[in-house]
Amino acid sequence: MKKLMIAVLLAVSVLGGFAAGPAQAPVLEGQVSISGAWALYPMVVKWAEEFQILHPRVRIDVQAGGAGKGIADVIADMVDFGMVSRDVHPVEMEKGALPFAVTKDAVVPMINSKNPYLPEILQKGLTRQAFIDIWITKSATVWGDVLDGKAPAPIHVFTRSDACGAAETWALFLDKRQEDLGGVAVYGDPGLADAVRRDPLGIGFNNVNFAYDPKTLAPIAGLVAVPIDLDGNGMIDPVERFYGTRDDLTKAIGENKYPSPPARDLYLVSKGVPAKPAAAAFLRWILGEGQKYVPETGYIRLSEDKLKAGLALLDK
In CATH, what number is assigned to the domain containing residue 157? Predict the structure, then answer.
């Protein structure tokens, strides 16, 4: 009888082992904090939403505030990632900042849709030298100075007040730094767009996703992108005419028809290789499956080589 009971218990144990099946992977959970560039904010919000659907026990907090804030926060260990819309400086890397390129966009010069010289601006565009005269040397003070005509109304120039990649990138296009840009300083991408939208004589610059409406893909109501006369021939040729919709512009950026700068890579920056499992998994997903959300959100996919380089860096 005793032997029979032992046999039964052994059988139950074996069957129970079969019923349990293989061990399941641990459920991903935790919190990921991110701050920084307005340029990257809409894309990271989209990535966070999709990743949290896949991993409902992960919570991702995303806050915009400018690239300067993002890099400062991550170096100070206040966040897991800083969103940075410019190249990371050597001094920042010496403090542990490790950049991962995740997507690409551009900065675009913008004017008010009620600008009295709008037809001429759209026909002729503005040259890089005209932008230098407006923002750097301040030698262009009325619209006639950049349109070679009788346009006596003053140019109202706006720039960014916060340390940001958009201003740094726009200044690099003009061979300068953000602190060299003139104009009334306004905080944030939405603030700068709103300032130009309220001033018929205003000119500013915005990241693509704050210049175009995400639903209609047309320029935000009240704003018009200023076409850049890339060859300096005094007119916008068909090859330079790609500002009608967000898709037109991002296609031109992807095909390198739009200059770089003001086109540029965008980065998630960590302090060293991310050690937190949720943060590392989120970044790995962004560099892989998450790239499918890039075009629909108004950004440009990076080359496979750059994405693979990011994954290799993460694996270290």
Answer: 3.40.190.10
The answer to whether the CB of 204 falls within 8 A of the CB of 159 is yes
16 occurs within a structural domain: no
> pTM of the predicted model, to two decimals?
0.87
Residues in the chain: 316
DSSP letter for 138, please. -
Considering the domain architecture, whether residues 122 and 208 belong to the same structural domain is answered as yes
Task: Indicate if 280 and 293 belong to the same structural domain.
Answer: yes
Classify residue 90: in a domain, yes or no: yes
- The tokens describing 32, both together, are 């990921």
What range defines the domain where residue 224 resides? Answer: 106-254
Per the domain annotation, does 84 fall within a domain? yes
- What angle separates helix 41-54 from helix 277-286, to the nearest 10 degrees? 110
> Into how many domains does the chain fold?
2
Report in angstroms the alpha-carbon separations of 148 from 27, 125, 133, 145.
Answer: 65, 12, 13, 6
Burial 110-138 (b: 16+ CB within 10 A, else e): bbbeebebeeebbebbbbeebbbbbbbee
The predicted-structure confidence for 146-179, as pLDDT tens digits, reads as follows: 997 789 999 999 999 999 999 999 999 999 999 9
Strand duo 184-186 + 30-36: pairing: unpaired
